[in-house]
């Protein structure tokens, strides 16, 4: 089952992690956000970060190669890192990213190195962290190295991998069943193939202002753009990868000026279908992990779960 | 990124808007596949290949954007960065013993040139070869020298949308759909390969269906801007398909409902 730690043990364990690499954990300021942390007291054990942990694997913007003498020199960053305190939804978000970026046919080297050098330690949610959480409907997997569940000042650590098991060998075993959170919000229909018609999405699309917050804050939105940036002398520069959004009008622009998804409706519908249907058809798990950020932080309060639940032929 | 540097063996201007590059490379694509072409400091663009099975790679590039403009300025013995080949091409091996019909419009004829090169190499494996190519004007005709040869060797049909000046090919003036409509084509044991602007492909499919072709006999090459080329960046995604990886060539029945997505 796992290992049991008390509060003192957990602090010691955290200090042990510091020696392995950079520990990144949720910190509460105005919002909760993941940051490199040195002291155990800085870690916030409540709530959910506004920005998911994808930024440590797929930064908003980064150089993937240097341009020098009319040639490319590939860049690889290597840093041992421990993510301490990610929620199960965000960890499942990584499972989605892994499916694409660790695809054996075309693995992404930069991503693969980061993934290999990261230890994932999660915090289990005792109850939903926001009214928008619906992870219970999304059949999340136990995707972590370790997952910590707090119960009456005790910390129950479930082991998800060998990498995780090796970190907690010295602690005592436990053998009880831990409760999973029950979400009020539910996604009732997970097969929306029959609802592609525009009429089903008109109401939401009218409200959408294409601000792209949903794609930025989504733990599994990974669409990116690649562009070269040169210094003023045009001799040195970088090839950059930056997060893009399928809500942007130019996202499907092709040479000659044609835009395939030329209306907000088509773009909004595409994102919902990608999250709920398309990805599942290919990889057998939905792309959505039920964190609810896209609805909680939506400029126009669009609730796509509500929309899907009310779809009727 | 897997980019490698290759030498340009020759360049020529095919038309006012198109350049043709022959590149020394070990990249050996199947007809219908594409490569990613990079110019350091400018960017990267997906270009479909126009040759097949050689020690060199031919690319026909229409100069429309920043990257293609920079490619257009390259000269013989310059270097170019390529990665690939990517995507699913036309499954020509499965078409052995069949009649092949090629329908191309404008720079969509370039990938079909790769198909023709393949068919020429394996001529005995295929039955009748018929072509319908359309261009804007006689000046816009691609591969002019080869067109003269194809005219003699195959059931070759060509049209130009308009002919303000001389028409050295003496071909009909009108859309490619018109010559397709007017020509009798054997439907039995035939596969049709299409490549061109979406509107041309839609109209041609309509005509072919009138001629009693089944959706499963038609093979279309979809156009999207593949930025990564390896099924990740999301730009080419259409109704759940990654056009870069699952396509760009699709059997028409797989994608008939999604052409505008």
Find the structural class of chain B using helix and strand composition. alpha/beta
The global form of chain A is globular
**pLDDT averaged residue by residue of chain B:** 93
Q: What share of the residues of chain B does DSSP label as strand, in percent?
A: 25-35%
Q: How do the strands of the widest beta sheet of chain A line up side by side? A: 3-2-6-7-8-9-1-10
- Inertia-based shape of chain B: globular
> Which second-level CATH architecture of the largest domain in chain B applies?
3-Layer(aba) Sandwich
Distance from N terminus to C terminus of chain B (CA atoms, Å) equals 28 Å
Major sheet of chain A: 8 strands, mixed
Amount of helix of chain A: 25-40%
Poorly predicted residue ranges of chain B: none
Topology diagram in text:
The complex is a heterodimer of chains A (313) and B (261).
Chain A: E1 2-6, H1 7-20, E2 22-28, E3 32-36, E4 61-68, E5 71-74, E6 81-86, H2 88-101, H3 109-116, E7 118-123, E8 146-151, E9 154-159, H4 162-165, E10 172-174, H5 202-207, H6 213-217, E11 224-230, E12 237-243, H7 264-283, H8 293-296, H9 304-309
Parallel strand pairs in A: 2-6, 6-7, 7-8
Antiparallel strand pairs in A: 1-9, 1-10, 2-3, 4-5, 4-12, 8-9, 11-12
Chain B: E1 4-13, E2 18-24, E3 34-39, E4 43-48, E5 56-62, H1 66-72, E6 79-86, E7 99-105, H2 109-121, E8 129-135, H3 144-153, E9 155-160, H4 176-182, E10 190-195, H5 198-210, E11 218-221, E12 237-238, E13 241-242, E14 249-251, H6 252-255
Helix pairs in contact in B: 4-5
Describe this structure in words.
The complex is a heterodimer of chains A (313) and B (261). Chain A has 313 residues and is an alpha+beta fold. Chain A has helices at 7-20, 88-101, 109-116, 162-165, 202-207, 213-217, 264-283, 293-296, 304-309, and strands spanning 2-6, 22-28, 32-36, 61-68, 71-74, 81-86, 118-123, 146-151, 154-159, 172-174, 224-230, 237-243. Chain A has an eight-stranded mixed sheet with strand order 3-2-6-7-8-9-1-10. A four-stranded antiparallel sheet of chain A has the order 5-4-12-11, with no helix packed on it. Chain B has 261 residues and is an alpha/beta fold. Chain B folds into two domains: 4-86, Elongation Factor Tu (Ef-tu), domain 3; 92-221, Rossmann fold (3-Layer(aba) Sandwich). Chain B is 21% helix and 31% strand. In chain B, the strands form three sheets. Chain B has a six-stranded antiparallel sheet, with helices on one face. The radius of gyration of chain B is 18 Å and the shape is globular. Classes of the chains: A alpha+beta (313), B alpha/beta (261). Chains A and B meet through strand 4, strand 5, strand 11 and helix 7 of A and strand 4 and strand 12 of B.
């Amino acid at each position: 089952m796992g290992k049991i730690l008390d509060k003192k043990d957990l602090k010691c364990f955290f200090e042990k992690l510091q020696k392995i690499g950079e520990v990144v954990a949720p910190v509460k300021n105005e919002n909760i956000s993941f940051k490199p942390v040195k002291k155990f007291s800085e870690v916030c054990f409540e709530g959910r970060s506004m920005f998911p942990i994808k930024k440590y694997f797929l930064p908003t913007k980064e150089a993937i190669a240097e341009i020098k003498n009319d040639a490319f020199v590939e860049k690889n960053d290597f840093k041992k890192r421990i993510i301490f305190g990610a929620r199960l939804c965000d960890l499942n978000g990584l499972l989605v990213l892994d499916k694409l970026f660790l695809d054996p046919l075309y693995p992404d080297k930069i991503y693969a190195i980061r993934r290999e050098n990261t230890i994932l330690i999660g915090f289990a949610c005792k109850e939903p962290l926001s009214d928008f959480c619906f992870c219970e409907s999304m059949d999340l997997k136990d995707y972590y190295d370790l997952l910590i569940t707090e119960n009456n000042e005790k910390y129950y650590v479930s082991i998800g991998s060998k990498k995780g098991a090796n970190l907690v060998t010295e602690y005592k075993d436990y053998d009880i069943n831990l409760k999973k959170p029950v979400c009020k919000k539910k996604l009732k229909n997970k097969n929306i193939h029959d609802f592609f018609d525009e009429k089903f999405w008109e109401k939401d699309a009218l409200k959408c202002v294409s601000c792209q917050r949903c794609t930025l804050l989504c733990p599994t939105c990974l669409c990116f753009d690649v562009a070269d940036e040169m210094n003023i002398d045009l001799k040195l520069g970088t090839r950059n990868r930056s997060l893009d959004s399928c809500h942007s009008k130019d996202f499907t622009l092709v040479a000659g000026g044609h835009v395939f998804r030329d209306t907000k409706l088509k773009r909004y519908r595409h994102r919902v279908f990608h999250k709920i249907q398309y990805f599942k058809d290919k990889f057998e798990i939905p792309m959505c992990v039920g964190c609810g950020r896209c609805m909680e932080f939506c400029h126009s309060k669009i609730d796509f779960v509500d929309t899907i639940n009310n779809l009727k032929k | 990124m897997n980019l490698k540097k290759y030498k340009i063996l020759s360049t020529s201007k095919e038309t006012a808007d198109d350049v043709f590059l022959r590149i020394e490379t070990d990249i050996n694509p199947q007809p219908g596949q594409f490569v990613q072409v990079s110019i350091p400091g400018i960017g990267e663009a997906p270009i479909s290949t126009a040759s097949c099975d050689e020690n060199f790679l031919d690319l026909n590039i229409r100069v429309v954007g920043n990257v293609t403009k920079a490619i257009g300025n390259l000269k013989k013995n310059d270097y170019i960065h390529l990665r690939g080949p990517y995507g699913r091409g036309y499954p020509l091996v499965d078409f052995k013993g069949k009649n092949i019909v090629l329908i191309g419009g404008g720079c969509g004829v370039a990938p079909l040139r790769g198909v023709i090169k393949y068919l020429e190499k394996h001529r005995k494996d295929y039955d009748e070869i018929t072509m319908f190519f359309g261009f804007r004007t006689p000046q816009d005709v691609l591969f002019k020298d080869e067109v003269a040869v194809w005219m003699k060797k195959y059931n070759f049909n060509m049209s130009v949308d308009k002919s303000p000046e001389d028409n050295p090919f003496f071909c009909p003036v009108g859309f490619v759909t018109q010559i397709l409509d007017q020509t009798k084509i054997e439907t039995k044991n035939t596969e049709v390969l299409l490549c061109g602007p979406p509107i041309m492909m839609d109209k041609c499919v309509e005509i072919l269906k009138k001629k009693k072709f089944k959706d499963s006999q038609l093979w279309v090459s979809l156009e999207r801007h593949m930025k990564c080329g390896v099924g990740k960046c999301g730009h080419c995604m259409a109704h759940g398909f990654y056009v870069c990886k699952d396509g760009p060539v699709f059997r028409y029945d797989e994608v008939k409902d999604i052409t505008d997505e």
